[in-house]
Amino acid sequence: MTTATAQALLMQLLDPAHRADPYPLYTAIRERGPLQLPDNNLTVFSSYADCDEVLRHPAACSDRLKSTVAQRAIAQGAAPRPFGPPGFLFLDPPDHTRLRRLVSKAFVPKVVKALEPDIAGLVDTLLGEAASPFDAISGLAYPLPVAVICRLLGVPVEDEPEFRAASALLAQSLDPFLTITGAAGDGAEERLQAGLWLRDYLRELIARRRREPHEDLMSALIGVEESGDVLTEDEIVATCNLLLVAGHETTVNLIANAILALLRHPDQWAALAADPGRAAVVIEETLRHDPPVQLIGRIAGEDMTIGGVRIPRGDNMLLLLAAAHRDPVAVERPDDFDPDRPSIRHLGFGKGPHFCIGAPLARLEATVALTALTARFPGATLAADPGYKPNVTLRGMTELPITL
Ligand code: HEM
Description:
By secondary structure, this protein is an alpha+beta fold.
């Protein structure tokens, strides 16, 4: 395949016409094997085996500054880290190892478990206000995760609207598709301002919690210590920022994608309404069948060979998780939404050293939301096809109308 053909195929992912159902396009891409765009220093993987191998490869890096493309931009005067030090999602060992270990000491299962009554209360309030037709995005999937992260960090309720607005803007900074393909220009200034506002806000909150610790993750992050090592203020800010950005739209998309799949399979909706214990398999199958994070990025830290292709050091790699999850070599009947399949394998929370630290929280939120919604409205139906945002990576709906 020529480079031009590979580029044209990849750019089709940006076409809004594919957003509602990008899966035929993912299949077309996967069937061609790894796509290489040497002029863009980019290789795109889409089979399950290749994505899995990259995620486990010790030379696959997450620090974007290691890429040839970033180095070229810096040489031309671009600011390397406009938001200050990045969250550990974008760091490699030893910094990643150290920060992840310290944060994991504060973000323990007990902290997640303690949020359960809050989550149940929030869902109850949201569904208590629901009237038919009900938009499951603005009425449930969108407001829940940001409210939960605010509770987790200890952000006062009155500050939630501003927090929510900043989060919506910053979500795009996670999108490797936009940064790598150079389509990220729009809204850069707005994102920068939102990032600066959030940094100042978090600094102020840290100062308050230092004076007066609460039972929240922010206070735990301030207090965490291992062998004399602690988190600096900049590191706490970057971590909270990361938790907000990584934990918001991802969870919105999980809840919304699961609701849509259930509505399109009324027998599954009814089964969950009757047996809340089915939530776990519904959620795992949604993460596979329609993953909230459609792709992730890596950089080759050294020359690598994956899937029979050579990737020069410094090249970017895009891993199309959503394509990998429909790979017939790895999954039987991959296009079917079937929570009862014998085993559900997916990379929806990543794999290896960067495996999602918020997975237990996301699963808990989705469990509470889906079981409450189906139990309260066992006969709900899809009122109209949903609308989609333009985002490729955090592909998500703008509205999901339901007849209750
Ligand atoms: C359904 C919801 C979620 C999905 C699908 C999801 C997905 C992912 C994925 C794919 C990664 C790995 C990225 C990579 O390897 O480059 C990741 C990492 C991460 N996620 Fe999540 N996430 C979700 C919810 C959350 C929540 C609720 C939080 C926290 C409040 C969170 C915090 C993080 C953090 C901090 C990392 C970085 C881990 C590291 O680099 O070591 N995520 N997530």
